[in-house]
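About this split. The held-out portion is used to measure sequence recovery: a designer receives only the C-alpha cells and must propose an amino acid at every position. Recovery is the fraction of positions where the proposal matches the reference. Here is one held-out target exactly as it appears in the evaluation file.
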C-alpha cells in the first residue's frame, strides 16, 4: 500500500470529504431557512434564504465548472456527470420557486413557495446528495487521486463563478 493510500483522507484532500462537508453546511442552511419561515421571522428568513440560494448555486457551479470536467477528462465518460447536471437543473428550478422567501411578509406565501414544489426541497437535496456521496465523489477520488483532489478543492474555494 502506498503512503497516499495509508493516510486517511480528510475534507481538505478528498472530493468526498470536502463535498460532504459542503452538503452538510447547505443542508443546515436549508433547515435554518425553513425554521425561520415557520417561526414567521421574516427578516431573518430573507437573509437565510438568500444565503441558502447563493450557497447552493455556488456548490452546483463548483461541481460543473471544476469537478465534473476533471472526472470526464480522467474517465472519458460523461454519463454520471450528465445525470447529475440534469438533477442540478431540477434543483435550480426549485430555487426559482423559493425566491418568494427573499421578500415574503406572510406565512402563507412562504409555505406555498416551499410546499408547492414538485418534491420537498430538503428531500430533493438529500436524494441528490446521496447519489453524489455514494457514487460520484468516490469515483472522483479514485480516478483523480489525492494530489489532484487537493488542487480541485483549492480551486473550488477560490475560482468558482458564483452567478
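Reference sequence for scoring:
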Amino acid at each position: 500500500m502506498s503512503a497516499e493510500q495509508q493516510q486517511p483522507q480528510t475534507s481538505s484532500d478528498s472530493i468526498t470529504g470536502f463535498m460532504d462537508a459542503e452538503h452538510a453546511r447547505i443542508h443546515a442552511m436549508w433547515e435554518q431557512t425553513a425554521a425561520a419561515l415557520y417561526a414567521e421571522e421574516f427578516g431573518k428568513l430573507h437573509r437565510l434564504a438568500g444565503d441558502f440560494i447563493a450557497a447552493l448555486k455556488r456548490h452546483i457551479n463548483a461541481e460543473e465548472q471544476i469537478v465534473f470536467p476533471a472526472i470526464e477528462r480522467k474517465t472519458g465518460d460523461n454519463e454520471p456527470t450528465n445525470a447529475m447536471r440534469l438533477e442540478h437543473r431540477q434543483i435550480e428550478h426549485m430555487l426559482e420557486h423559493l425566491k418568494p422567501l427573499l421578500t415574503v411578509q406572510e406565512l402563507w406565501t412562504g409555505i406555498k413557495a416551499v410546499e408547492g414544489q414538485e418534491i420537498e426541497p430538503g428531500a430533493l437535496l438529500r436524494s441528490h446528495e446521496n447519489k453524489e456521496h455514494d457514487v460520484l465523489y468516490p469515483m472522483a477520488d479514485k480516478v483523480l487521486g489525492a494530489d489532484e483532489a487537493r488542487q480541485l478543492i483549492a480551486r473550488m474555494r477560490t475560482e468558482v463563478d458564483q452567478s
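Annotator remark: The two ends are 42 Å apart (CA to CA).
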